[in-house]
Amino acid sequence: MPRRSFPLRRLTAWLALLLVSACTTVPPTNVHQPMTARPQPRTDSLAANLAATGSIYQAGTSRTLFEDRRARYVGDTLTVTITENTAATTKSNTSLSKTGSISAAAGPIVGLPGKFFQGMEASANSANSASGKGEAAANNVFTGTITVTVIEVLANGNLLVSGEKQVAIGHGQEFIRLSGIVNPYFVSAANSIASSQISDARIEYKESGGISEAQVMGWLARFFLNVLPF
Fold first, then answer.
1. Terminus-to-terminus CA distance in the chain, angstroms?
2. What residues contact residue 78 under an 8 Å CB cut-off, 6+ apart?
3. Maximal C-alpha separation, the chain
4. Do the Cβ atoms of 153 and 74 come closer than 8 Å?
5. Could you read off the pLDDT of 95-133 as tens digits, one per residue?
6. According to DSSP H, which parts of the chain are helical?
7. Which percentage of the chain shows pLDDT scores above 90?
């Protein structure tokens, strides 16, 4: 029988798989999904039945004169000022010591042949000591701005916001992501809020590219690291 050659289609599939694996991958995220939302049409019972007249005012799409421009609906945008500055220090010092001694002396022992046990003395000493010391410190600073989108309006009026900013520098790409729950009363007149006033905040700064991939252990090395017993 003639020798079967390796199918060209299978070879192409393997090459495509290698090319996809070599491309830059988007780092995973833990922020609330989705990270953007389209605005929902704001109509009432009267404006729903009105046709566009071509005038400047359009029922159902405009805001009243006394209403500000703060985010409050799904699809509205909100600027978040990231001002995260955390510092933590812990230090512990433990010292333990214990000493003990025992002594015994035997007087004249009679009734036994010889004088081996006469004047016998016994003594023992013990000492235990242990000491431990530990110290840890962490200092993180993260500043910047990002504009997020309201993806859900909760029953109590709070806003669930989420957003992402991608910055490509050279051959690398940076991802800044943020999500959390915003109280509308904390939003300033300029439609901005500090990250310290966001509840359940999830802030990420990740990057992809050659530099970040060089810091990650390969999948084959991770496999042997998990299965090897030594």
1. 48
2. 71, 147, 148, 149, 150, 159, 161, 182, 187, 191, 192, 193
3. 131
4. yes
5. 777 777 666 555 555 555 555 555 555 566 777 777 788
6. 8-22, 210-214, 219-227
7. 24
Give the residue carrying structure tokens 């530990």: 134
Domain parsing of the chain, residue ranges:
66-86+139-230
- 155-184 per-residue burial string, b: 16 or more CB within 10 A, e: under 16: eeebbbbbbbeeeeeeeebebbbbbbbbee
Query: CA 47, CA 53: separation in Å to the nearest integer?
Result: 12
pLDDT in tens, 54-90: 555 555 555 566 667 788 889 999 999 998 888 888 8
CA nearest to 149, candidates 83, 56, 70, 77: 77
Hey, what amino acid is at 40?
A: Q
